[in-house]
């Protein structure tokens, strides 16, 4: 199949759409004579007349009326596809590895604001409790919880996590003494250390000695522990920063301290290679979100965490 030269088809389509060689020439940034020449070349190639030429007007012949909508739709589709390809090429990409609990409880409720602020950045979240290589095939950056240090990586401190007893209002939790009568929910930490929030540590900070810890439901995912507390299955020693929505909506109550300070969340990256601009934009947005919370995610000024 042999097609006429593309320039002749483009000239004809523009002239047919405007019914004017002059307007077609203005659109294509050529002279009316050039449009007339291209159209005549197309007519000679096809062996049919496409326009009826009058002194101040051109009209489509039946052959021209048959050809025009095909070219109009074809060039329109070309333009749409090319625009999509340009946008895809221009789109900036960033993949961040995060803990599933951090993604579900802190990041996702806020993420629409990042997308509004940076519509050109395609953000992908890689959720896993496993540590992945940063700057490799999986993630460009990561948000990690722990003491560090993270050798060879650039670290942006986000906030410390703070823990306190929380329960469903249905349990009627009002004073620390109530904890001795209510079931306690436990978290099995993958890598416990001296900072790990436990009920034994909390009771010691609260000055409650000789409290017999009762066995109860234990979870290795704090999002499940939060859901169990919401369901009224017990009192959870839980992160203030990860329960902002639950406390604001009233499905969890946090009536007293003390507050145990845990480790900090940090945004980590290599500081080199691709996506540095996207990482900087993400880091600045995280800082803005933390500032919205008063600088540490969820604590009010009178909530003094215990070291």
Condensed summary:
This is LysR family transcriptional regulator. This protein has 307 residues and is an alpha/beta fold. It has helices at residues 6-18, 21-28, 32-46, 62-90, 100-107, 111-117, 199-205, 222-230, 244-249, 276-292; strands spanning 51-54, 57-60, 92-98, 121-127, 141-146, 154-166, 184-187, 218-219, 235-239, 259-269, 305-306.
Enter the CATH topology name of the largest domain: D-Maltodextrin-Binding Protein, domain 2
Helix content: 25-40%
Based on Cα principal axes, name the global outline: elongated
Largest sheet: 9 strands, mixed
The share of residues in extended strands comes to 15-25%
Indicate how many domains the architecture comprises.
2
Order of helices and strands: HHHEEHEHHEEEEHEHEHEHE
Oligomer: single chain
Radius of gyration: 33 Å
Total beta strand runs:
11
How far is the N terminus from the C terminus?
A: 80 Å
Q: Which parts are unreliable, with pLDDT below 50 for 5 consecutive residues or more?
A: 298-307
Structural class, judged by helices and strands? alpha/beta
Number of DSSP helices? 10
Give the class-level CATH name of the largest domain.
Answer: Alpha Beta
CATH architecture of the largest domain: 3-Layer(aba) Sandwich
> What is the mean predicted local confidence, pLDDT?
89
């Amino acid at each position: 199949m042999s097609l006429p030269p593309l320039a002749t088809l483009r000239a004809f389509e523009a002239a047919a759409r405007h019914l004017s060689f002059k307007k077609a020439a203005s659109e294509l940034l050529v002279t009316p004579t050039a449009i007339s020449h291209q159209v005549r070349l197309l007519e000679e190639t096809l062996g049919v007349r496409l326009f009826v030429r009058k002194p101040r007007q051109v009209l489509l012949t039946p052959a021209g009326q048959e050809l025009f909508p095909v070219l109009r739709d074809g060039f329109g589709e070309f333009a749409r596809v090319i625009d999509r390809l340009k946008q895809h090429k221009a789109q900036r990409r960033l993949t961040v590895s995060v803990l599933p609990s951090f993604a579900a409880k802190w990041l996702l409720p806020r993420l629409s604001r990042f997308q509004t602020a940076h519509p050109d950045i395609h953000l992908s979240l890689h959720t896993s409790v496993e540590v992945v290589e940063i700057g490799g095939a999986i993630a460009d950056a990561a948000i990690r919880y722990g003491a560090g240090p993270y050798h060879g990586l650039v670290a942006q401190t986000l906030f410390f996590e703070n823990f306190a007893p929380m329960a469903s209002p249905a349990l009627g939790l009002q004073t620390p003494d109530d904890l001795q009568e209510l079931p306690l929910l436990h978290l099995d930490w993958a890598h416990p250390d001296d900072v790990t929030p436990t009920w034994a540590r909390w009771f010691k900070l609260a000055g409650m000695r000789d409290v017999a810890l009762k066995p109860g439901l234990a979870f290795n995912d704090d999002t499940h522990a939060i859901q169990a507390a919401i369901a009224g299955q017990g009192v959870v020693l839980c992160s203030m920063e990860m329960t902002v929505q639950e406390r604001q909506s009233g499905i969890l109550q946090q009536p007293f301290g003390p507050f145990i300070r845990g480790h900090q969340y940090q945004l980590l990256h290599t500081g080199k290679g691709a996506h540095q601009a996207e990482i900087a934009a993400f880091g600045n947005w995280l800082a803005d979100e933390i500032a919205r919370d008063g600088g540490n995610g969820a604590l009010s000024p009178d909530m003094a965490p215990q070291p």
